[in-house]
Write a structure and sequence with these properties.
The longest helix is centred in the middle third of the chain and has 45 residues. Helix 2 packs antiparallel against helix 12, helix 15 runs antiparallel to helix 21 and helix 22 packs across helix 25. Strands 17, 18, 19, 20, 21, 22, 23 and 24 form an 8-stranded mixed β-sheet that branches. About 1% of the residues have low confidence. 51% of the residues lie in helices and 18% in strands. It is an alpha+beta fold. A hairpin with a 4-residue loop joins strand 1 and strand 2. Among the domains are: 124 residues, no CATH class; 185 residues, no CATH class.
């Protein structure tokens, strides 16, 4: 009880100190809040996206199985249904395997405006594999997804149920219209179920064409597997390797070179963002270190004022433990206030970050301040309080009163001076490391923006359509609907040209196939797969893809005419180097596919991202190879965004049930493809700038403190004839030594750590000398300016006044 009263008394004393030394208190609390806020916010992002377990039963046993065919240009690809069923029948490592088709668009009509919804087709056992169940109604049954005869039933997401149907519990059993077909709602999933991603808002039974089991060629499915208890990923991989080898022997025409890759479901989900997020977390950890170093310097300076009192207490019999408890307890109010402000700052930072995160960031819905982040903050504050707060008490308990007073007369102890110098050098090293990393990413981002995408996005509006096959069952019906849209849009005022393509550049979405060429040699083997696109005649002109040779499509190239295609310049160069491909023929590498005449060559574009120049492209005429998922592009004479309402009106006039979605300018599409890298670069640059400010404050604080302690010495030097410039050089020289030590350590660490960033860089090496030089100069300038300000004060000291005050 006595100990509790003593602790409360010490805490009350700490509260009184806040009023007695408001400047010190504000600086301490602000430093704590800044470090804790940034750390908790970034750790919350990393935990929610990378570390938090998947919201399914026993998530550590969930895996994804992919096709592995590196010999055919596919290190990883979707899975064929026939292979998946064979894996399920022959394996001994999985409890079960489920199939998912993630490419599914549904037009919801009735109960409001027509709306495009993203959904997935799933096998009836998926929910049992994931070990989840609907919150309302039932899941699918094997009867719902009979091969070739799926039932028209649907599961809704919680968000769609709330937004579109007002959370009506009577929705189960109701019929809704999807793609002009009636679907019966059999269930509503729980609030936390967001699979494969948060964009998916409904699920229907999977349709598998019986022919897929004969041809074994339709690689269109994601396979979700649940490992048996005690089975590892490595063991599952070994067994699937054996099964794949057997299938290759049994079906050499279709399965030669086809293997399988088993990966943990969580690792696969966050593979793309893991490294960037950990880099940002490391940056925040560096800021936390720099902030703690500043805080330590503040508290060490304060401890000098408390040393006399603690020494007297020790001389009167106070134990070292009692002195340590007192010193730490006095810090509790400032630590508590800084921690509270830090959590408030973290909540605000998280709110901003979530809004800025790109829409394709996986598992973003999981981000929030949770108990691991709270534990990290509490441990950090506790360590700061214990390690830093106990220093003066340990010194007082170890030294006598006479020793303490002697040190006070000198201003500080040599050990404390060394500690302060080391902390400042560490701040400089950490800051230089962050600046180099940020500069590398900034230079990479600049290089990416300089990349020519192969098309001209300016003045172009894009919009997507999902054309229902029930209403437009035949290819010619789809093509005719597209033609009428283009005819009406082209007639709008301020429209220069309009076109359609089934996959918009840099907008995501992969569609590849193998092609073979008539009358060519072994060089054709260099192009195992190409991007396959269906386009209308004016698509190339609308988005500025240059016509290099031959002609574009025309409306005369219909289903009754000779099949025609257009290839890009990259493919033409590989297959016919120095020759003219126009008039040559190619065909899809599949039995029974017709030969297609090449009528033109267009420029090569970057489709996946500006950072990757991957596959060449082949374009098919929309009347001869229709696609029911199309992107409309419209070249405007002025502001393209102003056309969106008019285009929506055109679509509505042709089909009142046809929604438009993802309407944005092509410039915005390009910017969106860079959103993740932009955010990563901006955050790291912000952290580096913050670290630079903190390091500058740290250097200024130490040099300013040294100047205050050496005023008498400077007065004597001036009285003995020293020039004021000599005093400035002396003070700046001490800071320069700290800068040299810190920068040397920072460059060594940055040289080793920069290699971690290598996978995030573009057209910039990990040891880019420009980035290292610019960062070193920036840190040096800030540090020397921070030294010069107190040095100038030292050079202006009045010698007589300094000697009298001492």
């Amino acid at each position: 009880m006595t100990e509790l009263r003593n602790a409360l008394q010490d805490i009350r004393f700490g509260v009184r100190l806040l009023g007695c030394a408001p400047g010190f208190a504000i600086a301490t609390i602000a430093t704590i809040a800044l470090g804790i806020g940034a750390t908790v916010a970034m750790f919350s992002v990393v935990y929610g996206i990378v570390l938090k377990p998947l919201p399914f039963g026993h998530p550590e046993r969930l895996a994804l199985v992919w096709t592995a065919a590196p010999s055919q240009g596919f290190p990883r690809a979707f899975v064929g249904a026939a292979n998946a069923f064979d894996w399920r029948a022959a394996n001994h490592v999985f409890e079960d395997l489920a199939l998912v088709r993630t490419i599914a668009n549904y037009n919801l009509v009735g109960d409001g405006e027509p709306e495009r919804l993203q959904g997935a087709r799933i096998s009836s056992n998926l929910l049992s594999v994931l070990q989840v169940a609907p919150a309302l109604g039932r899941s699918f049954t094997p009867q719902d997804d009979r091969i070739g005869h799926p039932a028209n039933v649907v599961l809704l997401s919680h968000a769609l149920w709330q937004r579109r149907f007002g959370g009506d519990p009577g929705i189960v059993g109701r019929t809704i219209s999807l793609n002009s077909e009636p679907y019966t709602v059999v269930g509503v999933m729980g609030r936390g179920f967001q699979y494969p991603t948060r964009e998916f808002v409904l699920w229907t039974p999977l349709t598998i064409d019986p022919d897929d089991f004969q041809t074994r060629s339709n690689y269109a499915y994601v396979v979700v597997a649940r490992l048996k208890p005690g089975v590892t990923i490595a063991e599952a991989q070994i067994e699937l390797n054996v099964i794949s080898s057997r299938l290759a022997r049994e079906y050499p025409a279709t399965n030669a070179g086809i293997g399988a890759e088993v990966v943990p479901m969580l690792d696969d989900t966050i593979a793309v963002v893991r490294t960037p997020l950990f880099v940002l977390l490391a940056a925040v950890a560096a800021i936390l270190f720099i902030g703690c170093a500043n805080l330590a310097n503040l508290l060490v300076a304060r401890s000098l004022a408390r040393s006399r009192d603690l020494a007297v207490r020790a001389a009167l019999g106070a134990s070292r433990l009692r002195l340590i408890r007192q010193s730490i307890a006095e810090l509790v109010p400032m630590l508590a206030a800084g921690g509270a402000l830090g959590f408030a700052a973290a909540a605000w930072i998280l709110n901003v970050l979530v809004r800025l995160m790109p829409s394709d960031m996986p598992r973003l819905e999981n981000v929030g301040i949770e108990w691991p982040a709270i534990v990290v903050a509490f441990v950090t504050l506790s360590m700061v309080g214990i390690l830093v707060g106990s220093w003066p008490a340990v010194d007082a308990g170890r030294a006598g009163v006479s020793s303490i007073l002697a040190n006070l007369s000198r201003g500080t102890t040599p050990r404390r001076a060394r500690i302060r110098d080391l902390l400042v050098a560490g701040q400089i090293a950490g800051t230089l490391l962050l600046l180099i990393a940020a500069t590398l990413l900034i230079r990479s981002f600049v290089e990416i923006e300089r990349v020519n995408p192969g098309f001209v996005p300016e003045q172009v509006l894009s919009a997507h359509l999902a054309i229902p096959r029930l209403k437009y069952p035949k290819d010619r019906d789809v093509a005719e609907f597209c033609r009428r849209i283009l005819e009406r849009v082209q007639a709008l005022p301020d429209v220069e040209s309009a076109g359609m393509v089934n996959r918009l550049p840099l907008a995501g979405g992969l569609q590849t196939l193998g092609v073979e060429f008539e009358g060519v040699g072994p060089q054709a083997a260099k192009v195992p797969m190409v991007d396959s696109r269906t386009a209308t005649p004016d698509y190339f002109r609308t988005i500025g893809i240059p016509l290099v040779r031959g002609r574009s499509f025309t409306e005369a190239d219909d289903e009754r005419g000779t099949p025609v295609a257009i290839i890009d310049q990259k493919l033409a160069t590989v297959i016919w180097p120095g020759g003219d491909p126009v008039g040559r023929r190619l065909r899809i590498a599949f039995p029974g596919m017709p030969w297609t005449t090449i009528v033109g060559v267009v420029g090569h574009i970057r489709h996946d991202s500006l950072e990757e120049d991957t596959r060449p492209q082949v374009y098919w005429n929309y009347r001869q190879r229709a696609q029911d998922r199309m992107a409309l592009v419209v070249k405007a004479r002025s502001d393209p965004a102003a056309l969106s309402r008019s285009i929506a009106g055109v679509i509505r006039s042709l089909d009142a049930e046809q929604p438009l979605y993802d309407v944005r300018t092509l410039d915005e599409v390009v910017d969106r493809s860079l959103a993740r890298r932009w955010l990563q670069t901006v955050l790291l640059a912000t952290f580096a700038g913050l670290a630079l400010v903190l390091a500058g404050i740290g250097v200024y604080g130490v040099i300013s403190y040294v100047v205050g302690q050496r005023l008498r010495e400077f007065g004597i030097r001036l009285a003995l004839g020293a020039r004021r410039r000599d005093i400035v050089v002396l003070v700046v020289g001490r800071g320069a030594v700290l800068l040299l030590v810190g920068a040397s350590v920072g460059l060594v660490v940055a040289t080793a750590a920069a290699r971690v960033l290598a996978s995030l860089l573009f057209q910039v090496t990990a040891l880019d000398p420009v980035s290292f030089a610019l960062s070193t100069v920036a840190v040096s300038v800030v540090a020397l300016v921070a030294c010069y300000l107190p040095a100038r004060r030292a050079g202006r000291v009045d010698a007589a006044l300094a000697l009298r005050t001492e």
